[in-house]
Structures are given as structure tokens and as C-alpha cells.
Design goal:
heterotrimer, A alpha/beta, B alpha/beta, C mainly beta, A: alpha/beta, Peroxisomal Thiolase, Chain A, domain 1, globular, C: mainly beta, 1 helix, 8 strands, extended, acetyl-CoA C-acyltransferase activity (chain A), Thiolase-like (chain A)
Chain lengths: 380, 385, 153
């Protein structure tokens, strides 16, 4: 793979309701900010990827609303519907495939729609949708299988929530920085067993953008380039009943491919920091298993042993993760952006000292059916 | 360094107004199997999948993950790309970059729609901005009618001129066993059909169709082993110029197509389009586009569209045959529609268009149209770029 | 004229996308739903290449990517392999909470079927045996909810 890098990053603060900004406004703001961050001008950008979802935006061709705001008026533009990591992945492909610079921008205003109805629509209309399943209840099924398989206690998941909301206190962009105890999480309102309110991510409004450039454009940008060393995605079977929900095999497959590209054999040694898609507390240990940081069933042990805390050898979600800010679609791009800030050494109070190699991760579909894995490095 | 990319196989369903025998996922499976059969590959040879449609036509969120059983993406990379009417070309262009990037050798592009499952107009109305445009400029036909009447006033084109385009496409569809509408029509039929919004009548516009298309893209070195005569991608260009329908200058022509063709012609080294291009598959959602947009493409000069059509230059056997497949006016499964243009152009380049083959095609052009007067363009050729 | 936008009251407009849908079930799925409706039976089908018995039945096997022709009648009983007791109320839900979703491995199937459990939630755990409770024949329409729910045995 040719050398390509992320040379610009911008994100809004994430909050419950952005009353004063339309989606267009948010995208315009991010486009301006990411250009400013990179030191490039719109003239330097030769193509654009927007990330949007027609259900979330309450319109057909949601991309139509944001093309001009993203500076795409007279440029080659396309739209990925799905998590921002997938949009960024297509953006990277376009740089590898001949463009100089891709601007990738994602937005969502969950506050304007009904997210439970919207996630209900990812279930098959013939066999599943009328049962009323949506993201939370489907994920609760996954958590139940995972706990059962390995004898995990709810307290172990609660601990993830405590850690990530605590990490969010150092992240000025986070929606829910909180001082929590395991008792707080365990005592929070029951939603769908074993998930309680504080096991679930919020619905946030927000937007984010990055610029991906080929090697010759990295010197035009004023930022320290963050090199893309590996990237891969993979999906497994669709019907929940067809899957082993406690075995994220598509994540394992994507991770193996991304690691091979980056010539990583021992992820635990290779990575300094991980930003993954913890839409629910149980996802963090489960995805860590899929990413090969430990054996199946041992994800919770990593936190018990302090490895994934800020002072551990592999801090996971220093940003506070998706549990602390969940703008749908944007959230995966926010993982990439946190990784970029860590590798540039600009993560301020949450900086992992000397971070050189980072992993960012996003998901699509019910219970992490499809995963996207990024390996990023401060070194070419 | 971008790799060269070619199309090596295509597949499509037999398009119908309703496909009661299959659900969406099963219809996709049908097109994918046909594409794989066309290039004699198995699903296990495919490295990645790109899929697209429009969410509110079937109300499926995350079509990429919902479809894997039919698209063949179980334990494979898949992503969803969607941009309205241009979805099919956006999917094709995304598949091109999947391969050009060097990350994947053989990539499947899928476009599909089951338009019979919803009220197409109720869904498409919501493409207009909910605050500014939805209560006025809503749906596909009002904006197209505005474009048509502006063109008629500017150049004195008539309703009969437009009807000839519909007649041409529907006549061509008789040669395409996959086409949805395969009954010949006359100019009189078009003129006598019900007026929808002046000057657009029922037979001037595309139908709603259930159907799917799949196209296999492969990398240089791989493609030649799969297909004896791959259809090389010579150019891809995209202009999604506007956000609001009110911003469109209907007297300035289809600005997005002017821009896209300028760029694509430059990439492919085309100087005189009507001479250099052997066949064109154009996303013409309604007949008037067939007059005006060939001017934007440089097939003829401004205002010369009606004469160019009447002289038969775009018929089979003409100077530059347009829409040998029968075009969008004969088949319109929206998420697949633009991909069908690419598939037909590829089939023409590969010499696999059977009864509708234009002789000795070296360069073929495919376009996509959608959104807010947006245009995409893909140029294919027999010569490796 | 330059205006300070910070002082402007942010307005909202209400709306919804009201599109009616009629999904084609397809021949294979129709066979499944008709069996629920007319016979109170659950049928699946088996990929003869990988020997997986699917429920609901599929036109093709996702992994082998080949057509499936062999239909099998499955038991109306099975084992819960995942469950969640739903505590929140929402208009999408077919019954008022608390109720449970469960993945049920029916006798004779190799994959799980998602459905609901309404009663005895305190006895619900992974591994319990459940039985399909069908609606009255007059209420069955060829719908996944022709199975009213599963009941713990």
C-alpha cells in the first residue's frame, strides 16, 4: 500500500440537542475547521465523501442536504451510508486510487428523529421487525450470550462504563463525562437485561471531518501526518440466530487483515492506544477479544488487571468512547480522530504518553455484524 | 499509484413491475449469480462488495448488513454507497476505487430496488429539504417539468420532439430480454397519454420497476485472465452540484453533466464525442432529457437535439446509438438504474450485448442522473488505458 | 447588514416520513408463513452442501451461495440460547413490557429464531426449553406473530 496519511481532523462537541444548527450548518462548520486544522484550502481538496443516513435525517437522498456544505459543489463526491469508519475507508481508497486529498465528513442529529424506530428498521421486515427489536434489545441478547458463555458478571461490564465515563472528564468534546461507581451503574434503571441505563451509550448530536492525503500532499499540510498503516472491513451473517453472538468473527477477520497490512504480529505489543466502538459497555471487552488483544472470554480481565485504564499499558477509549458520546455515523470517525490526536500528541489531559501506534474501530448493523479496523501510526 | 481496472462480468434480473416470487434479498441473489456466471467466477473469488439503493423505497436501514446472504458478502467486506438516482454509478465508481486502490482484486458492485414495495413518490418527495423545498418543489416530476418547459421555450422544441426519444428507447427495449416495458409505442401514443405536469405525459417518463444489477470489477492482470475482452474503465467523473432545487438555473443547461463530461472526456482523451464514442447508455429519466442532455454531452450543438434525434443519429445503426438497452424509460429499478447503464456499456464493449450489440464498439459511455440535477459519468473502452 | 445570530430563537418544524410499505415475502418465506397460518407448523430448510438447517427458511445459503431446495418440518419446541427481559415501554413492542426476547434453537434447526416470551420471566434463563404458542386459527394471517409467543415448559 502507498503511504497515505490523515492530515486534518475536526469534530464538534457532542451533546443531547444542537438547537441552533442544522445538519448543513454542522457539516459546513466541520469542513471549515478541518481545512483550518490541516492548513489546506478547499482548492487543495480534489474529492469529498459525505456520510449520512436517510432514516436519521428524515429524508431521501440525505447526501443532497450536505454536499455544498462539504465543499463538494464542483468536485467528485460520493456518500457512504454507515459508520464514519467506513466512509473514511472509502475516502482512503480514493486517495490510494489516484486522488490527492479526500475530505470525509459525517453528521447526525439523533435528536431530530426517533432512534429506536430507526434502528428497528435494520431488522428484516418480514421475519424480525414486527417483534419490535431495535439496537438496545438486540444488543442485550448479545450480552446475554457473552455472559453465559464465559460466566461474566454484570459488574464487569459496569466497570467499563465507570472507566469510560471517567476518561470522558478529560475530553472537552464528550457528551457525558461522569464520575461513576460500579454501584451507580448497577443501580441505574433497568433497560433490557442485562443492560442498564449506564451500560448504554446516549444519543448525541454531532459532526466530524478528516482529510486523507497522499504522500506528496502531506508536506503541504501544516499538521503532523498520521499514517494509515492498515485498514480492513468484514461482515458476517445477518440473522441474529445464524450468528454466534459471543464470537465476533468478522472483527477477527478484519483485524487480522489490517494487522497483516501493518506488519503487526502481536497487537498487545504493537499498539499504544485503542479507540473502539463501545455502544454498550459489554462491547468493549468483546471487541478487544475480536481484535486479538486477549483470548476469547478474557476481555473483562484486561480491565480487571488495569491494562486498559489510562495508566495501563494499553489505554482503551481515552476519549470516553462511544459510551460518553454517540452521534450515530459520526462515532466511528470520532474514534479515528481521537487516535489522530493521540498520535499527534495533542490529546491534552488524556494524552497517552509517547503514543506511536493506535487502533480505531467502527461497526455497522445489529450487534457488530460488520466491523472496520484502522491501524494508524505517527511514523511512516 | 492507481491500478487499472476493468469490468469482467455483468448480471441483471428480468425486470418487472412486481416480483412477488422473491423478497429484496433474494432478488439481489439472482443478479449476483448471473454476474458470477457471466464471468465464470464463484462467490469465493470475490474480495469485496459494494451495494446501493434508496432507503425509503423499501424501508431497510443498513442494507449492506441486511443483504449479505443475497449479495454473497457473508464473511466479506461490504459497504453501502447511496446517492439517490446516481446510486448505481456511485456504486460502480466505488467498486472501481476498491480495485484501483490496490486493496482488492475482484469486487462486486450491486444496485437494486423493489419499487413495488412502497409509494415511490411519497418516498421521493422527501428528498427535498424539509424546511425549504418539500412543500413546494417536491418529487421528481415538478423539477423535470420545469427543465423541459425552459428548454422548449429556449429552443422551440416540441412535445413531439420529446416523444420521439421515448419511442426510440421503447423500440430499443424490444431487443433486450431483461427490459421491463417491452411493448412498442408511437409518437401518437405518447401524445395521447395522460398529462402529468406540463409538458410531461405518462409515456414521457420512466416506470417503477423491481430489479437488481450486479457488475464484477477486476484489477489489471486479473481481469485479462477472467474475460477475453474486459471493458476497461477509461474515466469516472462526478458532479453533484446542487443542494436546493431553487438554486438550479434551468436556462444554463444541465451544468453537472457539462462539468462531468468535460472532465471525463479529458481523462479518456475524447475530443469529438459523437465521433469518438461508439455507443452511449444515458440515464434519461424522461424523454425531454434525451433532447437536451445530448447537447450537454457535445453529441450536437445547443438546440440541435431535436434534429439530431429526428435524423436517426441515435438509433441503432445511427452515428452514435443511444440506449440500446431501452434505457430508463423502459426499466427503472432506481438503485440499479445507473448501474444498468454501466453494465450495458460494459456489455457493448465486451461484445456480449447479443441482439442489441452495436458493431465494433471501442468506446462506450454511461451516465447517471439523480439528486438535485446531479450527473455521473463512466467511460469504458476495449483499450487498456 | 450583519446580524448577530446568537440572539435568534431556534425554531423547529414537525414532520414525519409517511410512506406505506408492502414487502414481498418471496416464495420461500411465504411457504414458512403459510405453514404458520394454516398448519401451526414451523418449517425450515436445509443446505445440502453444508448441512445447515435454517429457520426461517432461505432461498439460498449465505455461506455456500447455492440454492436451497430441501424443506424440513421443525419441532414447535426448542431451547433458549439468548434472552433479554425488556423493561422499557415503546410503541414498537408487540406487547407491553416486561416481556422477553429470546433466540430459540428449535428442535431440528441449526440456527436460532428470534421471538418473544411473555410469561414466567422469573424462570427464564439460557438453556430453558420453550414451546411455540400459536394464535387462534381465526387470528392467524401469515405473519411472524402468528406464533403468539413461546412459553417456558
Amino acid at each position: 500500500m502507498d503511504n497515505i496519511a490523515i492530515v486534518g481532523a475536526a469534530q464538534t462537541t457532542y451533546e443531547r440537542r444542537k438547537k441552533d444548527k442544522t445538519c448543513y450548518d454542522l457539516v459546513f462548520e466541520m469542513t471549515k475547521q478541518v481545512l483550518e486544522d490541516s492548513g489546506l484550502t478547499l482548492k487543495d481538496i480534489d474529492n469529498v465523501i459525505t456520510v449520512s443516513n436517510d432514516f436519521l435525517d428524515g429524508r431521501t437522498i440525505s447526501s443532497m442536504a450536505v454536499g455544498e456544505a462539504a465543499g463538494a459543489h464542483d468536485k467528485n463526491v460520493s456518500t457512504v451510508e454507515g459508520d464514519g469508519t467506513f466512509g473514511a475507508l472509502y475516502g482512503a481508497m480514493r486517495v490510494l486510487g489516484g486522488f490527492n486529498t479526500t475530505l470525509v465528513v459525517a453528521h447526525s442529529k439523533g435528536s431530530e428523529g426517533d432512534v429506536k424506530h430507526i434502528t428497528n428498521a435494520m431488522f428484516d421486515p418480514i421475519f424480525q421487525r414486527f417483534l419490535g427489536l431495535e439496537a438496545i434489545t438486540a444488543s442485550a441478547l448479545q450480552a446475554s450470550v457473552y455472559m453465559d458463555r464465559y460466566g461474566i458478571r454484570e459488574e464487569s461490564f459496569a466497570q467499563v462504563s465507570v472507566k469510560n465515563h471517567g476518561n470522558a472528564k478529560n475530553n472537552p468534546y464528550a457528551h457525558l463525562p461522569m464520575d461513576l461507581t460500579i454501584e451507580d451503574v448497577m443501580g441505574s434503571r433497568k433497560i433490557a437485561d442485562p443492560l442498564k441505563l449506564l451500560d448504554c451509550s446516549p444519543v448525541s448530536d454531532g459532526a466530524a471531518a478528516i482529510i486523507i492525503a497522499n504522500e506528496s500532499y502531506t508536506s503541504k499540510a501544516k499538521t503532523k501526518p498520521v499514517w494509515i498503516k492498515g485498514l480492513a472491513h468484514c461482515a458476517e451473517a445477518y440473522f441474529l440466530g445464524d450468528r454466534d453472538l459471543a464470537d465476533p468473527r468478522s472483527l477477527r477477520d478484519a483485524a487480522e487483515k489490517a494487522y497483516a497490512m501493518a506488519e503487526i504480529t502481536d497487537p498487545m505489543k504493537a499498539f499504544d492506544v485503542v479507540e473502539l466502538y463501545d455502544a454498550f459497555s459489554y462491547m468493549e471487552p468483546l471487541w478487544l477479544e475480536g481484535l486479538g488483544f486477549c483470548s476469547p472470554g478474557e476481555g473483562c480481565k484486561l480491565l480487571d488487571d488495569g491494562i486498559t485504564t489510562m495508566s495501563g499499558t494499553l489505554p482503551v477509549n481515552p476519549s470516553g468512547g462511544v459510551l460518553s458520546a454517540h452521534a450515530l455515523l459520526v462515532a466511528g470517525l470520532a474514534r479515528i480522530i481521537e487516535a489522530v490526536l493521540q498520535l499527534r500528541g495533542e490529546a491534552e489531559n488524556r494524552q497517552v504518553p509517547g503514543a506511536k501506534t493506535a487502533l480505531a474501530h467502527g461497526i455497522n448493523g445489529p450487534c457488530g455484524q460488520s466491523h472496520c479496523v484502522w491501524v494508524l501510526s505517527s511514523e511512516k | 499509484m492507481a491500478r487499472r481496472v476493468a469490468i469482467v462480468g455483468t448480471g441483471q434480473t428480468d425486470h418487472r413491475s412486481h416480483r412477488p416470487d422473491v423478497n429484496g434479498r433474494e432478488m439481489i441473489y439472482e443478479a449476483v449469480k448471473r454476474a458470477l456466471d457471466d464471468c465464470e467466477l464463484s462467490i469465493h473469488d470475490i474480495d469485496a462488495v459494494v451495494i446501493g439503493n434508496m432507503d425509503h423505497f423499501e424501508s431497510i436501514n443498513y442494507v449492506d448488513t441486511w443483504s449479505v446472504e443475497g449479495s454473497g458478502a457473508v464473511m466479506k467486506p461490504i459497504m453501502k454507497v447511496t446517492t439517490g438516482g446516481t446510486t448505481g454509478t456511485s456504486v460502480a465508481i466505488a467498486a472501481y476505487y476498491h480495485v484501483a486502490s490496490g486493496l482488492f482484486d475482484r469486487v462486486l458492485a450491486i444496485g437494486w430496488e423493489k419499487n413495488s414495495e412502497s409509494d415511490t413518490t411519497a418516498a421521493i418527495i422527501t428528498c427535498s429539504d424539509p424546511i425549504w423545498d418539500r412543500f413546494s418543489y417536491s418529487g421528481a416530476i415538478p423539477s423535470l417539468a420545469t427543465e423541459a418547459s425552459a428548454y422548449m421555450k429556449q429552443y422551440g422544441a416540441t412535445q413531439e420532439d420529446a416523444a420521439r426519444v421515448a419511442v426510440r428507447d421503447r423500440t430499443h427495449a424490444l431487443n433486450n430480454p431483461h427490459a421491463h416495458l417491452r411493448r412498442p409505442i408511437t409518437v401518437e401514443d405518447v401524445m395521447a397519454s395522460p398529462m402529468l405536469a406540463y409538458p410531461i405525459k405518462l409515456l414521457d417518463v420512466c416506470p417503477r420497476t423491481d430489479g437488481a444489477a450486479a457488475v464484477v470489477f477486476a484489477a489489471d492482470g486479473v481481469a485479462q485472465k477472467i474475460a477475453p475482452k474486459p471493458a476497461w474503465i477509461r474515466a469516472c467523473a462526478v458532479r453533484h452540484t446542487y443542494t436546493w432545487f431553487g438554486d438550479v438555473d434551468y436556462n444554463a443547461g444541465l451544468v453537472s453533466l457539462q462539468g462531468a463530461s468535460r472532465e471525463a472526456y479529458q481523462q479518456a482523451g475524447i475530443r469529438n464525442p459523437a465521433e469518438d464514442i461508439d455507443v452511449a447508455e444515458l440515464y434519461l429519466p424522461y424523454s425531454y432529457a434525451g433532447l437536451k442532455w445530448i447537447e450537454e454531452l457535445g453529441f450536437c450543438g445547443p438546440g440541435e437535439g431535436p434534429g439530431f434525434i429526428q435524423d436517426g443519429h441515435t438509433d441503432m445503426g445511427g452515428k452514435i446509438p443511444v440506449n440500446p438497452s431501452g434505457g430508463v424509460i423502459s426499466t427503472n429499478c432506481i438503485g440499479a438504474t445507473a448501474l444498468l447503464r454501466v453494465a450495458e456499456a460494459a456489455g457493448q464493449v465486451m461484445g456480449k450485448a447479443s441482439q442489441r450489440q452495436v458493431p465494433d464498439v471501442e468506446v462506450a459511455l454511461a451516465t447517471g442522473f439523480g439528486g438535485c440535477f446531479w450527473s455521473d459519468m463512466v467511460i469504458l473502452g476495449t483499450v487498456r488505458p | 447588514m450583519t446580524v448577530n445570530l446568537d440572539q435568534v430563537e431556534p425554531l423547529t418544524l414537525k414532520g414525519q416520513i409517511a410512506v406505506p410499505y408492502t414487502w414481498w415475502v418471496g416464495e420461500v418465506g411465504s411457504k414458512f408463513l403459510i405453514a404458520l397460518r394454516d398448519e401451526a407448523k414451523i418449517i425450515g430448510n436445509r443446505c445440502t452442501k453444508c448441512n445447515t438447517t435454517y429457520v426461517p427458511p432461505r432461498k439460498n445459503c449465505g455461506s455456500c451461495f447455492t440454492d436451497i431446495y430441501e424443506f424440513v418440518e421443525l419441532g414447535n419446541e426448542g431451547i433458549v440460547s439468548a434472552h433479554t427481559v425488556v423493561r422499557f415501554k415503546y410503541p414498537l413492542q408487540p406487547v407491553e413490557s416486561p416481556f422477553a426476547y429470546a433466540l430459540i434453537r428449535l428442535d431440528g434447526a441449526d440456527v436460532g429464531l428470534v421471538h418473544i416470551i411473555k410469561r414466567d420471566l422469573d424462570r427464564l434463563k439460557n438453556g430453558v426449553r420453550v414451546k411455540a404458542q400459536f394464535k387462534d386459527p381465526s387470528e392467524r394471517t401469515g405473519h411472524i406473530l402468528d406464533i403468539d409467543s413461546f412459553q417456558i415448559i
